[in-house]
Design a protein that fits this description.
- The complex is a heterodimer of chains A (242) and B (431).
- Chain A is of the alpha/beta class and 242 residues long.
- Chain A has one domain (12-206, 217-233): von Willebrand factor, type A domain (Rossmann fold).
- Helix content of chain A is 37%, strand content 19%.
- In chain A, strands 1, 2, 3, 4, 6, 7 and 8 form a seven-stranded mixed β-sheet that branches.
- Chain A is globular and about 65 Å long.
- Mean pLDDT of chain A is 90; it is low at 233-240.
- Chain B is globular, with a radius of gyration of 24 Å.
- The N and C termini of chain B lie far apart (64 Å).
- In chain B, a hairpin with a 4-residue loop joins strand 22 (395-399) and strand 23 (404-407).
- Chain B has three domains: 10-94, Phosphorylase Kinase, domain 1 (2-Layer Sandwich); 102-297, Orthogonal Bundle (Transferase(Phosphotransferase), domain 1), CATH 1.10.510; 337-430.
- The mean pLDDT of chain B is 92.
- Chain B has a six-stranded antiparallel β-sheet, covered by helices on one side.
- The interface between A and B is large, with 48 and 63 residues.
């Protein structure tokens, strides 16, 4: 029987890209990288589900690793639907400046952010265990001028005590968005929590601003608030060393 | 933070009974939903995440009141029992959703499609009526969005869920909803959600249901590569523009991006398009003129339903009640049939398979579900159509030739001969 609704197609959905920016320097070798690989691989199906059920936005995933230089694992953001995590190896230095440069290049409507139906601001998730080995400052400053970056939800996880929380705080824009973990369990838990929460907040239309009449909502604030709640209650990070 | 229940866990209810967890069904931002068993019957149980409810005491008390008042109609998956509070949170029990009901977002994602035009229009009518019943009982819904409905794609039957945010008029539970569905004044934080803001949200839901795109997202929204929180405030709050605004074409749907709106909008009858043009006009959005009421929409969709007929091609189409029509499926011309004008409120095309409902025949009724009559084909001479009385009342039919006929239940009058029908509490005139 002819039916006009047979011709209905999926509504225009915006894109929200979740960036994993992963420190793959030599010091990450062993259980850190092992835990990271396993934890991200496990959370991907959850992100796929959040994307699949969401009529506001589809989630894409992009992966950038940095060690001696920076390298995109995904040549372009991939639909969460099709994405599988390729296990990363750890070797080399901690060229955070190179990572900032690579991000800055791709955070543009001419590069990664080119979807016809438009995008929500991305969510950028940085994971690192050490001091930058390159002169990262000039590239980070340039990146901070990038509007996509400025509007992004940004969270960093410092793995162990060697990571420089101040540097990571410069990247996220506020220290509250930097979390420190000391155990594989805490790392795995945080990867899951941050990936899922950033995907949920980033891919949804916002609520009402908290600042009063005609004040916009702020997704980064919402994210930081959730991080605060989880840090206080959920993570039993003990005194275990890596 | 959240608490995970395991299968087999027991949750104490306020009434002293226990709900045994069967399995987890799903999870949202506010909480998780489990299938549970109370005695031998299965139900759904929603358990809130800790920290998501702004004022737990008030929220709990409100749910308690709603349970005591009972469901506004059978279209609601209404809270039935509260749980005891445990570990800083609590939940409530409701009926399970049958499998034939699909989430609204699945329609938007084209994973489920309406089986017919009637199903889509029935769904609009049922959602409208659900909210009308809710508002008539003094409640407001407060958080109306695409996550609140389950719809049967075959017939348009609707289940409204997430009724935990429902609150009496004037009350507000601190739930603000999603920008894409909130009234502009709520997005701007000038007002808390209430019945008036529900009306706006209902209009957005109805538009999305029928036209499968967003009424405020056209050209200018697509031209913003990054929809920041500031732009959301502008597009949904300070300066919203309807994609089919009569006087402002700056936000029209874009070919290739909004194919559903471009395809379905022109197929709908003018009176329905005008209803949306009015409801989403700048004046109505900014609250300068009153937004259409639930009853306005209910009458409009009841009339829309009365204009749907099956074309000889087998597809359903709308009939233009003022002239000839073209089938929306095959383009064939369908001549204007006799139209019955009822109580000055409704028009019904007297076309085979068309139904008369109680709201048509009784001027004091708004019952759009109880069938009062139907148009049938004569079994031996299918080109002759008749109107059959299916109600328990007696109709007095006045024919064009001056004669008249008393029509009891089951009896039929020839459509082309009818001039006027006297119902016990109403009148219908052929125009």
């Amino acid at each position: 029987m002819p039916n006009i609704y047979d011709g209905a197609v999926e509504v225009a959905r915006r894109t929200m890209t979740l960036f994993f920016v992963v420190d793959a320097s030599g010091s990450m070798d062993g259980s850190k990288m092992g835990t990271l690989n396993a934890a991200v691989e496990e959370v991907i199906p959850e992100i796929r589900k959040i994307s699949g059920e969401n009529a506001d936005a589809a989630i894409k995933i992009a992966v950038l690793e940095f060690s001696s230089g920076a390298r995109w694992i995904t040549p372009a953001p991939m639909d969460a639907e099709d994405f599988t995590w390729s296990f990363l190896d750890a070797d080399g230095l901690t060229d955070l400046g190179e990572a900032c440069k690579a991000l800055n290049e791709k955070l543009s409507r001419k590069a990664f952010m080119s979807d016809a139906a438009g995008s929500f601001a991305p969510a950028i998730f940085l994971l690192s265990d050490g001091e930058p080995t390159d002169d990262y400052k000039p590239e980070l400053e340039k990146l901070k001028q990038n509007n996509w970056f400025r509007k992004a939800i940004k969270v960093a996880v410092a793995i162990g005590d060697d990571a420089n929380r101040d540097v990571l705080g410069e990247f996220t824009g506020n220290k509250e968005a930097v979390l420190t973990v000391h155990t594989p369990e805490a790392l795995a838990k945080m990867i899951r929590f941050v990936s899922v929460t950033a995907s949920q907040i980033g891919s949804k239309s916002t609520g009402v601003g908290k600042g009063g009449v005609d004040e916009a909502a702020n997704k980064q604030d919402e994210m930081v608030q959730k991080l605060g709640a989880v840090q206080e209650t959920d993570i039993d990070d003990g005194d275990l060393e890596w | 933070m959240k608490h995970e229940f395991q299968n087999g866990d027991k949750i104490a209810l306020r009434n002293g009974e226990e709900a045994k967890v069967v399995e987890k069904l799903g999870e949202g931002g506010q909480g998780a939903v489990y299938k549970v068993k109370i005695g031998i019957k299965e139900y759904a149980l929603k358990w809130y995440h800790i920290g998501v409810i702004p004022n737990i005491k008030k929220f709990y008390k409100n749910l308690e009141n709603n349970i005591a008042k009972g469901s506004p109609s059978d279209a609601f998956l209404w809270p039935l029992h509260l749980t005891e509070q445990a570990g800083g949170s609590f939940g409530y029990v409701m009926e399970l959703r049958p499998d034939n009901y699909k989430e609204f977002s699945e329609f938007l994602l084209a994973r489920v499609r309406f089986a017919s035009l009637s199903a889509a229009v029935n769904a609009s009518l049922n959602i409208t009526n659900g909210f009308r019943e809710l508002h008539r009982r003094g409640f407001s819904y407060q958080d109306l969005n695409d996550g609140n409905f389950f719809i049967d794609p075959l017939n348009g039957n609707v289940l409204i869920c997430d009724n935990d945010n429902v609150a009496p008029y004037g009350e507000n539970l601190g739930i603000a909803g999603k920008a894409r569905y909130m009234a502009p004044e709520v997005v701007r934080n000038k007002k808390k959600p209430d019945v008036m803001t529900d009306r706006f949200s209902l209009t957005v839901v109805l538009f999305r249901l029928l036209f499968l795109d967003h009424p405020l997202e056209g050209k200018r929204v697509v031209e913003s590569p990054c929809l920041t929180e500031e732009l959301e405030l502008k597009y949904y709050g300070k300066d919203p523009i309807f994609i089919y605004d009569k006087d402002d074409d700056s936000n029209r749907p874009v070919r290739g991006v909004h194919p559903n709106a471009l395809r379905f909008w022109p197929l709908y009858p003018k009176f329905i398009r005008e209803k949306f043009e009015f409801a989403l006009s700048k004046d109505a959005m900014h609250g300068k003129i009153a937004r259409p009421t639930d009853n306005d929409w209910q009458i409009a969709f009841t009339e829309l339903r009365s204009s749907i007929v099956t074309c000889p091609c087998g597809g359903e189409t709308f009939l233009d009640l003022s002239g000839d029509s073209l089938c929306v499926c095959c383009g064939m011309k369908i001549p204007k049939p006799p139209v019955l004008s009822l109580q000055g409120r409704y028009k019904v095309a007297l076309f085979p398979e068309m139904k008369l409902y109680k709201c048509h025949t009784d001027r004091d009724s708004d019952d759009y579900k109880e069938i009062a009559g139907e148009v049938i084909r004569n079994p031996k001479q299918p080109t002759i159509w008749g109107l059959r009385n299916l109600s328990d009342t007696i109709w007095n039919v006045e024919y064009k030739d001056g004669t008249s006929k008393i029509l009891s239940k089951g009896e039929v009058a020839v459509v082309t001969k009818i001039k006027q029908i006297q119902f016990p509490n109403g009148v219908g005139t052929v125009i």
